[in-house]
Amino acid sequence: MSQRPVPPRGMRDLLPSEVVLRRHLLGRIVEVYERYGFLQIETPLLEEIDRLLGSEGGENEKLIYKVLRRGIETWPPATEGEAVDLGLRYDLTVPLARYFASHSADLPVPFKALQTGPVFRAERPQKGRYRQFTQCDIDVLGDASAMAEIELVCATSEALAACGLDGITVRMNHRGVLDGMVSAAGYDADRKAAVLITIDKIDKIGLDGVRTELRALGDPGPADRLADMLAASIEAEGSAATLAALPATVDEVAVADLETIRVAVREALPWVEVAFDASLVRGMGYYTGPIFELAHDESSGSLGGGGRYDRMVGKLSGQDVPAVGMSIGFERLCHVLEGRARDWDRRDRIVFLHDAMAPAGEVVRQANALRGGGAVVRREVAVKNRRGQLARAAAAGCSHWAEYRAGEEPVVQALDEENEEGTR
Amino acid sequence: MSQRPVPPRGMRDLLPSEVVLRRHLLGRIVEVYERYGFLQIETPLLEEIDRLLGSEGGENEKLIYKVLRRGIETWPPATEGEAVDLGLRYDLTVPLARYFASHSADLPVPFKALQTGPVFRAERPQKGRYRQFTQCDIDVLGDASAMAEIELVCATSEALAACGLDGITVRMNHRGVLDGMVSAAGYDADRKAAVLITIDKIDKIGLDGVRTELRALGDPGPADRLADMLAASIEAEGSAATLAALPATVDEVAVADLETIRVAVREALPWVEVAFDASLVRGMGYYTGPIFELAHDESSGSLGGGGRYDRMVGKLSGQDVPAVGMSIGFERLCHVLEGRARDWDRRDRIVFLHDAMAPAGEVVRQANALRGGGAVVRREVAVKNRRGQLARAAAAGCSHWAEYRAGEEPVVQALDEENEEGTR
Fold first, then answer.
1. Closest Cα of chain A to B86: distance in Å?
2. 3-class SS at B274?
3. CATH topology of domain B16-338
4. Is B395 exposed, middle or buried (0-12, 13-18, 19+ CB in 10 A)?
5. What is the pTM for the complete model shown?
6. Distance between CA atoms of B171 and B153, rounded to whole angstroms?
7. For B113-165, how does the pLDDT look when each residue is reduced to its tens digit (9 = 90+)?
8. Is A358 on the interface with B (CB under 8 A)?
9. Nearest 5 degrees, angle CA B284-CA B287-CA B292?
10. Selected residues 37-56 of chain B with any CB under 8 Å from a CB in chain A
């Protein structure tokens, strides 16, 4: 146990001002998503470990917090498998797929799900990254049409705008387009996964870095052809020209889907930029169709992302269900908005002073009369240095003060004016 | 892994209607607590295992979900202590004490904390009890006066009333009164813990059962004297007469505190019953002063409880801080209110039908126009059997419907009227 009473490594406590901001933002997001017809669900934070480990979660599966089986009688258990039966969820998608497979008979079809809650990944701690963090997901299950993607992109863009971030840019790609480019470049199917992992590093190592790593994978011919295609896409800056310039082997339906999404989002929400980006991969192995990332000038990293995963639910239920989801990077969103002026909570905040000897019931009754109008009232025993006490209250966010007087109703005064007078 | 994709044993998924109820109730509770000046905080769901195991949590410590240390290189670890470093929290009080010890410099004093969130106990699964459940706590740290208890009792009673349960009864006792009764009966100090555990079973086994078990502990003299005192208290039904009849060895300050609390709560909130109950113990070892339970006619078990624990923070910070807390039994509250009529969400819910071939951007734009007024809009591709589709929408909670027509703004109609006409 660490000497100082701090949270576990890589985790953190939230101060009241942080909770106010987060609750405000979550409230805005949920409100927009609900207007789009998404229904909020909740799943337990623990899932069976075998389910988590068999879910194509890629690197995230290595980061699972594993929970010891209860009632182990003789220590040590022979294997880790005997010792562990549960794990903390590392995302909200695996639990959603399980949830839908379990409850689909009780849910409308298509099912539009909204989930917010903590997830856990035992990553190496670094600035701004936490081992417990909040995710905020919407998913459409049972709709194979591009309309599902269009609603997800529009709803998420509007949710971010409701938090104060308009001017969203949506980068999009399609697993079918990626597959087509990779095979047009001359790669065999069994090299695809390694090639995609390399392309995915482009934000960190740049196009030249990707070209170098692709060459290191083997034959330079496919490496250069693929890097040239990526370069042409970057050159075209996401315009329709990029889509037209794709090699003929690329799935035409995939290209048409992306164009349908781009046109519809621009028409519904003209303030959203939608750009094709051939270098967008997203890590998860389970994506099968369009993939997305949402960016904003004020954030260096993406503020959200998602894509279509048509085969995951089928693995659990035995019946394929088309599915597509979008996740807001809630921690990053909070980080971007933390610096802004605090007008999240506009209620009056009154500090109500009373003598320690005043009759308690009457003090609470008077304080409650002030609360009746919706104000927040913090009761405090008055100290001698009233100027100091009111200054501390103002620093803690109080806007007004009042004082208990026997037999009189309290008079509320703004803290600014009275901070001076109160010391007379 | 179980064959059906169900949650882990003793845990559960929440359907959308359940989430709506829970969110509504939590919102009401938080709103009342905030008006009382409580500030919301959050702590991680994991704590260091040694901290959880050394916190006087009584039976709850045996129910901790333990988390395997990451990066164990050679299996098996020699001991469980080597294998485990973290645990899931089993209540919100231990994390609060750690939080306060860590952050008190950044917090107002006294600090009035509000916490809601999941806690975990690996109890034997049974009806209405879950291994992950929500707690909803308020605590006052740094106030040794009875005013802290009075505010906790008043705020919690008002929070329950805001959820629709007025007519709250508060049962209260005091660890000082219990200690005094136990020693007045003739028990040695080292028998106290066992005696209190026995008294605590009175709700399950009745007074006669308690008398029998006390006798089984040893000498029948103290057992009968203590059982007689409890009988007298029950006879007096919580009135002031009970307090007057307490043996002279009982701490007078404790008795005076209880009377102060009773009088003040009745004065501030005349609709709250406050009754002394000499048989109230509450399990936790860490209580040091007044203890409470909140009851309501519509619930067989208590809807909340708490008490003063003046020494827990000091164990972590090295400096004693007076502390008192109250917890709402949120799951039980939900259970009581589940049966009531669903008017939690009063927004219009519109199902918006469109042809699968309609231009997607224009469909979303029209749906958004409907959403602009605050309505919830669920977009659906129209099917041939419109009567069936609208009936399903009504069953899923929709109040209105509308239809996409190119070049026209949609007309919203109530579902009742149109459910018939729509099939013509």
1. 8
2. strand
3. BirA Bifunctional Protein; domain 2 (3.30.930)
4. exposed
5. 0.92
6. 10
7. 999 999 999 998 888 789 999 999 999 999 999 999 999 999 999 999 999 99
8. no
9. 90
10. 37, 39-48, 50-51
| Contacting residues for B421 by C-beta, under 8 A, at least 6 apart | none
Q: Strands of B323-328's sheet, edge to edge?
A: B39-40, B111-120, B132-141, B323-328, B304-308, B290-295, B169-174, B273-276
Cα–Cα distances in angstroms (integers) from residue B238 to residues A110, B170, B192, B230, B273, in the given order: 56, 10, 23, 11, 10
Q: Are B152 and B282 in contact (CB under 8 A)?
A: no
- The answer to whether B120 touches B65, Cβ cutoff 8 Å, is yes
Contact by Cβ (8 Å): A155, A36: yes
pLDDT tens-digit series, residues B358-409:
999 999 999 999 998 889 999 999 999 999 999 999 988 899 999 999 999 9
Residues B72, B100 contacting (CB under 8 angstroms) = no
Q: Inform me whether the C-beta atom of residue A104 falls under 8 Å from chain B C-beta atoms.
A: no
Distance from CA of A264 to the nearest CA of B (A): 4
Mutate to test the interface with A, among B82, B269, B376 (most CBs of A within 10 A): B376
Closest CA of chain B from A138, distance in Å: 13
Give yes or no for a contact between B16 and A41, defined as CB atoms under 8 angstroms apart. yes
| Interfacial B residues in 300-329 facing A (CB < 8 Å) | 316-317
**pLDDT per residue as tens digits for the range A83-129:** 999 999 999 999 999 999 999 999 998 999 999 999 999 998 888 78
Rounded CA-CA distance B130/B128 in Å is: 7
**Strands B46-48, B400-403: parallel, antiparallel or unpaired by DSSP?**
unpaired
Residue B5: phi, psi to the nearest 5? -80, 70
The first and second tokens of residue A60, run together, are 């995230």
Q: How far apart are CA B166 and CA B161, in angstroms?
A: 4
Which H/E stretch holds residue B149? helix B146-162
A72: left (phi over 0), alpha (psi -120 to 50) or beta: beta
Q: Contact B268/A364 with Cβ under 8 angstroms? A: yes
HEC states along A222-249? HHHHHHHHHHHHHHCCCCHHHHHCCCCC
CA dihedral B159, B162, B165, B171 (to 10 degrees): 20
Inter-chain residue contact A51 with B368, CB threshold 8 Å: no
Q: How far is Cα A184 from Cα A164, in angstroms, rounded to an integer?
A: 42
A384-396 tens-digit pLDDT: 999 999 999 998 8
* Extended beta strands in A361-424, E state: 376-381, 400-403, 413-414
Beta-carbon separation of A377 and B35 below 8 A: yes
Sequence-separated (6 or more) residues with CB below 8 Å from residue B198: B210, B213, B214, B217
- Per domain, the residue ranges of chain B are 16-338, 349-421
Q: State the first-to-last Cα distance of chain B, in angstroms, to the nearest integer.
A: 51
Is residue A281 left, alpha or beta, with left meaning phi > 0 and alpha meaning psi from -120 to 50?
alpha
Domain A349-421 has CATH 2.30.30: no
**Strand A46-48 relative to strand A84-88: parallel, antiparallel, unpaired?**
antiparallel
Q: Do A368 and B260 touch (CB under 8 A)?
A: no
